[in-house]
Design a protein that fits this description.
The complex is a heterodimer of chains A (117) and B (112). Chain A is an all-beta fold and 117 residues long. Chain A has no helices and 11 strands. In chain A, 0% of the residues lie in helices and 52% in strands. Chain B has 112 residues and is mostly beta strands. Helix content of chain B is 0%, strand content 57%. Chain B contains no helices and 11 strands. In chain B, strands 2, 4, 5, 9, 10 and 11 form a 6-stranded mixed sheet that branches. Classes of the chains: A mainly beta (117), B mainly beta (112).
Amino acid sequence: GAVVSQHPSWVICKSGTSVKIECRSLDFQATTMFWYRQFPKQSLMLMATSNEGSKATYEQGVEKDKFLINHASLTLSTLTVTSAHPEDSSFYICSARTSGRSTDTQYFGPGTRLTVL
Amino acid sequence: QKEVEQDPGPLSVPEGAIVSLNCTYSNSAFQYFMWYRQYSRKGPELLMYTYSSGNKEDGRFTAQVDKSSKYISLFIRDSQPSDSATYLCAMKYTSGTYKYIFGTGTRLKVLA
C-alpha cells in the first residue's frame, strides 16, 4: 500500500516551454501533497504544500507564478514549470500525506528528472 | 546552524557489518522522526517511523531516538550490497503542521 506515482519520469524540453508533472496516489486518498526539488548529492528542498481544492502554499523563495501547482482531486496533484530555463533543470519529487492512518507520514513518488536545454 | 545535521559520508562498510547512521537536531519541538532510503535517481522510500523517544525494530533495521540528547540513529544489521543508498533522516513538529525537515542524507556503500 501507499504507492505514489509520477509522470513523466524523465523529460527534456527547450528553454521557454512549459512542462507539466503529474503526481498520483494510487491506493489511498491524499488530502495533502508536497512538491520537492533535489539537486545532485543534496537533500530535498520543499517547494510547496498543496491541499485538495485550495491554493498551494509556497516556501519562501519559490516563485508561485513559475511553479504552478494544482491539486484537483484527492489522488492527483500537478506541477507545471512555466517558461522553463536551464536553471530549472533538476529532480522534482512529490509526496503524498496519508490521512486516517496512525503513522500520518509522507510517501514519495519516484521523481521526475527535468532537463531544460 | 541547521535544524537537522547529518554527515553526508560516504560511509563504506564490508558486507555483513553493522551500520550506524545518525542525525542531530536543535529544536526540541520535533516529535516525529523518520528514516528514508533513497537509491540513485529514485524517490525516497520510508524505512522507519517513530514517535518521541525509544527504539523501534523492523527486520534488520533499528531506529533509536534520544530526545534528551537530540540525537537519532538508524542501525542496519548484516548489511548487504543492496543496502547501498543514501539514507535521509526527517523530522516533524507536533501535529498541526505536516512539513518535514530533512537531513542532507548519508551515502552508504556496502562492499561485497
